[in-house]
Amino acid sequence: MIESISNDAGFNEKCLRLSNLSGPGLMPKTACAQYPGTHCSFRAVAGSLTLIKNAYALLLGPAICLYNAKLSMSVRSLTSDPRPNNLLFLEYTQDDVIFGFRNRVMQTILEIDRIYHPELLFVVTTCLQEIVGEDFEATIDEIRSIVKAKLLVIHTENFTSEEATPGIENLFSSFFDLMQPETVVPKSVNILGLWTYHARETELALLLKSKGVEVRNAIPSFCTPSDLAGATGAQMNIVLDQYALPLAKKMRECFSTDYIYCRKPYHPDSIEIWYRDLAGALDIDLSEEIRRMKTESLEMMARARSLLSGRSCALTWNTGRTFDLARLLSEIGIKIDVILAQTILPDDQEDIRKLLSMGVDPWIFRGDNSLQTEALLCRLKPDIFVGGQDPQSLARLGIEPCSISLSHSMFGFGCCKEVLSRLCRRAPGIEALMYKEDLISQGAV
Amino acid sequence: MDLKHSGFPVPSDYFGVLWGLSGIKDLVILEHGSPGTCSYNAFNYRIMNRQSPKGKLFSSGMDQDDVVMGRADKVVEAVRELDHNLHPRIIALVATGVTSVIGLDLDGIISEIQPLTHARLVSFPHGGFAGDYNQGIMESFRTMVDLAKEPAEHKPFSVNIIGPTIDSFNNVSDLAEIERMLELLGAEVNTVFTSRTAVEEIEQMASASLNLVTRDLGLETAQILKERFGMPYIHGLPFGVHGSVRWMNDIADNLGLRLEKRTIAQELLKYGYSVLELFGFMQNFDHLRSLLSCPCDYALGLAGWMAEEWGLPPSAVALPARPQMPHVPEKLERMGVSKVLIEPESLTIEDALNSIKPHVIFGSSYDLQIARNVPVKIHAAFPAFDYIYRFDGTPFVGFRGHAYLTQTLVNSLNAHPEVFLS
Predict the structure, then answer these.
(1) Model confidence over A225-243: pLDDT tens digits?
(2) What is the pLDDT of residue A374?
């Protein structure tokens, strides 16, 4: 049945076996007419700047982008990870396209400085200004001396890449402009690529703290412009995702701040290595903590195996090492039918090799187009969908949704346990949803 | 001032076009722009009653090369794919800001590929630079009503409802109540233009005998249908007992039907309870002040009802968009409204709240956020990002709307008994 995928419904060359994947890079597009498609740099940047304290972000763009940015933050305010309301908006109109935006931008920055007194003001562009090509750096330079706030411009063009990566890298790199040389404090670190307001309550941060390691900054979370300025006083940067790598490299080049790049693992063995590498780099002993937490995780894996072994799943892209997550799922007996991925990173190769060596060779498919994804899921019919997807559509296909969104801002064994616990515990309301959708699909109502 | 913080950036005509088209079956929207814009829209549909544009809205996935070279290959390929896979009757090509700025000629593309496409292609080229969302909704109405044909048959007791779009606040319940009331009269709904319609239904709009315009944005459409097919129309929503009876009588007169007194009596026995019946003797409410912040049809209807039946004219009314009909401020003033604000900034609403100190506010989620110190907050306008109105039993209009809203007001005030202290 599965083999027919490649011959049916236009899935040719779009749905590959993992073993046939040629290497890192973007997966092939699944359709010319896309929905929802990939999300853009502007959206990623607008959503992240809210994490910086004592700062405001002035978003410059057409109403299309600004309205959606405001709504996203408003919806976020209703979640367990709300963001401060520090976004300001200046609409880019047709007159601005024709006559230039410079004067309005300058006046608005002066107004913000006077009314809100931010320590730092980010000025964020959208792709429209990038195409028009107005030089915002020059505009900002003109008023920099009369504005009390520090000013940073972030470009978020979305035409140079199909991903949000360039904008997020620009965001990280902009922090570099705030940094000043500082005397290095031994046993102190910055954590780069930690994206939650609760950064300092994560397992990683708490564990480091318990060993006397000072976390100077969790970037971009929970840091002030002054904290960022002093980031160079850290002994080392712990880089948790690829977006923060350019900043880490720049800091090493200019301030000799060493870094360790370690994307988030999910499997207990990988987490153990991850912690041992960190402990080695920082010259601390985490062996007792690792042993205790790993034992708990393995016990949980055994319980999960007894409940879930033999079930099949589709796995969507997650924060950190998705193929390591696939390994975790495989080891508790879940058969992975498909992994929905957009971009394969060079450092995913090692995890892919491990997975293949276990005899696990799922389909791999770009998951950014809902209709194509649903058509594929309809053919594969996995029992569970792990990750974010519309629960109603899944339930209508008879697939049980399992959201692991809370694990996105978790690290270490805590993250592994959170994923296992979500897999073992059905989401509240899921039975009623599946029952209803089953009846609807049978035409009972 | 141009800077926005506590309020929200007003959605542009681009959004109005999307919302005006999204309720039409057999029509798909292909926007020519970067996928980021399309992806972002998942949010804005979601806050409108948890809707999704899946299967309705698509992006051509424009990239840097397309911008530099002014290429249209991607949109052409996407049209071909949608035409082949989904077989829509219409594919609407919608410009985004970038398409508009680089001056890509969507009509030129259409004339090139229309002969090879089964679906009819229509263009919306403004890309968010032609004004606010109301302009986009009117543009979509104008384009779509052009599909109406001479009818094959004439339905004497059939009406079109013109105005609701997928962004209309409380549209599920309000439409259910309007349809129920029409049924009481012996009339039927031909189509709901555009929140619940199909291309074929739009083509057959002129088979109905009357157009009911529920929103000022639909007046131009009704006028077009009057000029082309001689169709009469009535504009307004049935708010309160008086308003509902008047509305039903107007429709009955136009369709040659009769509104039976028995029918009204039965409705009022069920749904006609006044505030006096629901408040207790010791609950003093004649001092209550309120502020309404809703589009003009809701504002006129609610203000009239509140003044006429609750005896509590709103102290101020804020209209988020300039009305498409004359004399709205004067009408509101005649109802006893002392302050009318048109397209106010959030700071202006804040000032009004500080000076009036209302006990009750009706408005959008953002209005209610600003009104931190107002005890009773009732969602009554778009956008409502923290409020769901999917259930069809919470109308604001009609007899059931009268009952529901009167009861809601009394319950909400009871939860804040301090408001009864004058």
Answers:
(1) 999 999 999 999 999 999 9
(2) 94
- Of B145, B172, B193, the residue that ends a domain is B145
Contact A128 B97 (CB under 8 A): yes
**Element counts in chain B: helices (H) and strands (E):** 18, 15
Interface probe for A, chosen from B8, B43, B388 (most Cβ of A below 10 Å), is B43
What's the CATH number where B320 sits?
A: 3.40.50.1980
Please name the residues in contact with B26: beta carbons below 8 A apart, sequence gap of 6 or more.
B88, B89, B90, B198, B199, B200
Cα B298 to Cα A357, B231, B293, B381, B389, distances in angstroms: 65, 25, 9, 8, 16
% of chain A exceeding 70 in pLDDT: 97
Same domain? For B292 and B202 the reply is: no
Residues B298-320 have a mean pLDDT of 96
Q: Which residue of B has its CA nearest to A47?
A: B40
Which one has a higher pLDDT value, A309 or B35? A309
Contact check, Cβ <8 Å, B61/A29: yes
Show the DSSP H helices in B306-397 as ranges: 328-334, 346-356, 365-370
A371 at the B interface (CB within 8 A)? yes
**Both B177 and B307 in a single domain?**
no
Do B338 and B400 belong together in one domain?
yes
Interface contact flag, B3 A90, Cβ < 8 Å? yes
Interchain CB distance below 8 Å, B54 and A370: yes
Contact B39 A89 (CB under 8 A): no
Question: Do residues B343 and B322 touch, judged by C-beta distance below 8 A?
Answer: yes
pLDDT at A1 over 80: no
Same domain, A11 and A128: no
Q: Cβ of A42 and B39 within 8 Å?
A: no
Both B248 and B364 in a single domain?
no
Please list every residue in chain B whose beta carbon sits closer than 8 Å to the beta carbon of residue A72: 40, 43
Q: Is residue B151 part of a domain?
A: no
Query: Are residues B294 and B260 located together in one domain of the fold?
Result: no
Substitution target in B37, B38, B81, B350 with the highest count of A β-carbons within 10 Å is B37
The answer to whether residue A189 is domain-embedded is yes
Residue B398 parent element (H or E): helix B398-414
**To the nearest whole angstrom, how far is the Cα of B280 from the nearest Cα of chain A?**
36
Smallest Cβ distance to B78: which of A33, A58, A62?
A33
B63 contacts in A (CB within 8 Å)? Answer: 159, 162
Q: What is the pLDDT of residues A264-310, one digit of tens each?
A: 999 999 999 999 999 999 999 999 999 999 999 999 999 999 999 99
Quote the pLDDT of residue A2: 41
Tell me, yes or no, whether B121 lies in a domain.
yes
Does residue A7 surpass a pLDDT of 50?
no
The answer to whether residue A338 sits within a structural domain is yes
Domain hosting B297: range is 282-420
Cβ neighbours of A93 (radius 10 Å): 17
Residues of B in contact with A87 (CB under 8 A): 5
B7 in a domain, yes or no? no
In this prediction, residue B185 has a pLDDT band, given cuts at 50, 70 and 90, of: very high
How many structural domains comprise chain B? 3
pLDDT in tens, B115-167: 999 999 999 999 999 999 999 999 999 999 999 999 989 999 999 999 999 99
Q: B406: closest CA among B300, B213, B281, B270?
A: B270
Q: Are A179 and A229 in contact (CB under 8 A)?
A: yes
What is the least distance, in Å, from the CA of A208 to any CA of chain B? Answer: 37
- The per-residue pLDDT of chain A, averaged, comes to 93
Q: Which of B34, B55, B97 sits opposite A159 (nearest CB)?
A: B34
Q: How many residues does chain A have?
A: 445
Identify whether the C-beta of residue B39 lies closer than 8 Å to the C-beta of residue A43.
yes
Contact A37 B3 (CB under 8 A): no
Do B286 and B396 lie in one domain? The reply is yes
- The answer to whether the CB atoms of B10 and A67 lie below 8 A apart is yes
Instruction: Report residue A266: phi and psi, to 5°.
Output: -125, -35
